[in-house]
Write a sequence for this structure.
């Protein structure tokens, strides 16, 4: 089992550690709901060092990524980032990614921890015929995220960059908490926030500095438990639940991410063009109106129907909204808000109703 | 960790309060701490028969579903209806207002298989 550079910090903070994608990670510190609320109202600090950091460099790096992914990283302005996916030749999702353009010929691809080795191997193969090299820096990189409405004010005095000049989905190489960092305005919580990519051993300095600086403002460390409920409220997909190789981006409601107009072939193009207008299922948000909490894998039925017509992919009791929410796949003709379903919860069924995603949107 | 002396305890962290032929069932403070923020409790219907060491319901946190295991066998003669609207009572008052069910004990010797407070304290200290 792998441990991040912050392992001793988590244990000292009383975290409950769980195995996750081959890593020992904190699932919660003081309590999931308390951590969730802190991120919505003040700020939370996350250790995301288990995620994969893949650097692609070379004169052909942009063209290589344009071919390997469904987006057009070659069209990114230097310093900007976008959400992307890597698909199989038949259009299934291998992973969802964030791609940063760090320089004219230098990119960073951030992959989910569970998929990082697969993505690295797949990318290496796909870029082989281009003038581009892949450097898997996952085991040399600590990633610390600070998220929440007070993240910017806590972070600003500790960095050598004016955050008012850092847009959402932008990144800059600067000094943060006394160490060299790639500072990005990205996150997975539905709040304003930042991610700091630093050298493995510098993770501790960043963590300690931000814990000390943020605690008076209400910042708390946040585990994977609240990370999951925060992203679910924000309607963001999680690989392995909403996304997998048997799902196309169109079915997941992420068709806008696929850039057919980028010119040139890319892996999965033909299959995705065919899949675009032929989704087999559709991802929706649901509010459970009956009794019980819908969880991953629970069946979804049309009211009173004997056979399931869909599946819950994620569900929880929403800490912010105070009622159970879920995402799941249902038939494509039943996605309108207000559409009625039942979720099989053990021996019973609970009513559920389609609601627009995201469940939660921050006030700006 | 609160472990009242007058109760009996199962290895699954349920408590049983015996009064004649009636047993009141709840979960321990240790279980509450392990489960985390309690948001839902599902209990059996009145008249259902529960079996010692077997699941009789579920308790859910924001994160996960946990089964509830009967500390003794018997017929359900009361359920704590208040938990439907206030499941968090289990966390705030697990040994009193947060009780789960009352059963008519069908096999009083089930109680002999349970731990006393000292035995349960020793068990959780070793976890």
């Amino acid at each position: 089992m792998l441990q991040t550079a912050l392992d001793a910090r988590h244990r000292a903070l009383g975290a409950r550690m769980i195995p996750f994608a081959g890593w020992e990670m904190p699932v919660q510190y003081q309590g999931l709901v308390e951590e969730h609320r802190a991120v919505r109202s003040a700020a939370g600090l996350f250790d995301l060092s288990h995620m994969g950091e893949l650097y692609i460099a070379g004169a052909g790096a942009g063209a290589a990524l344009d071919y390997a992914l469904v987006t057009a990283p070659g069209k990114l302005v230097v310093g900007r980032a976008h959400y992307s996916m890597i698909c199989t030749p038949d259009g299934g999702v291998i992973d969802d990614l964030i791609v940063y353009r760090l320089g004219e010929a230098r990119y960073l691809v951030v992959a989910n921890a569970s998929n990082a080795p697969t993505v690295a191997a797949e990318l290496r193969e796909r870029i082989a015929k281009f003038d581009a090299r892949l450097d898997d820096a996952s085991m040399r990189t600590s990633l610390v995220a600070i998220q929440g409405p007070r993240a910017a004010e806590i972070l600003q005095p500790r960095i050598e960059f004016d955050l008012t000049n850092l847009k959402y989905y932008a990144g800059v190489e600067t000094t943060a908490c006394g160490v060299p960092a790639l500072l990005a305005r990205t996150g997975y919580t539905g709040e304003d926030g930042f991610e700091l990519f630093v050298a493995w051993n510098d993770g501790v300095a960043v963590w300690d500095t931000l814990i000390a600086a943020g605690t008076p403002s209400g910042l708390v460390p946040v585990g994977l438990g609240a990370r999951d409920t925060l992203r679910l409220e924000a309607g963001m997909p999680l690989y392995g639940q909403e996304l997998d190789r048997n799902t196309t981006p169109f079915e997941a409601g992420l068709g806008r991410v696929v850039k057919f107009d980028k010119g040139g072939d890319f892996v999965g193009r033909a299959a995705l063009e065919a899949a675009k207008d032929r989704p087999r299922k559709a991802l929706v948000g649901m509010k459970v109106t009956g009794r019980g909490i819908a969880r991953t894998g629970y069946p979804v039925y049309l009211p009173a129907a004997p056979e399931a017509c869909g599946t819950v992919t994620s569900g929880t009791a929403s800490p912010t909204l105070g009622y159970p929410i879920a995402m799941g796949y249902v038939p494509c003709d039943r996605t309108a808000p207000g559409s009625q379903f039942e979720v099989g919860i053990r021996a019973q069924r609970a009513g559920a109703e389609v609601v627009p995603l995201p469940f939660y949107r921050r006030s700006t | 960790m609160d472990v009242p002396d007058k109760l009996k305890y199962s290895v699954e962290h349920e408590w049983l309060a015996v009064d004649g032929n009636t047993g009141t069932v709840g979960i321990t403070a240790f279980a509450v701490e392990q489960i985390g923020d309690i948001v839902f409790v599902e209990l059996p219907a009145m008249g259902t028969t529960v079996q010692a060491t077997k699941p009789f319901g579920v308790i859910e946190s924001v994160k996960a579903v946990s089964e509830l295991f009967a500390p003794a066998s018997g017929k359900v003669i009361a359920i704590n209806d208040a938990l439907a609207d206030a499941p968090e009572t289990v966390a705030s008052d697990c040994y009193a207002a947060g009780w789960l069910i009352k059963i008519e004990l069908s096999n009083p010797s089930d109680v002999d298989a349970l731990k006393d407070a000292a035995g349960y304290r020793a068990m959780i200290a070793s976890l």
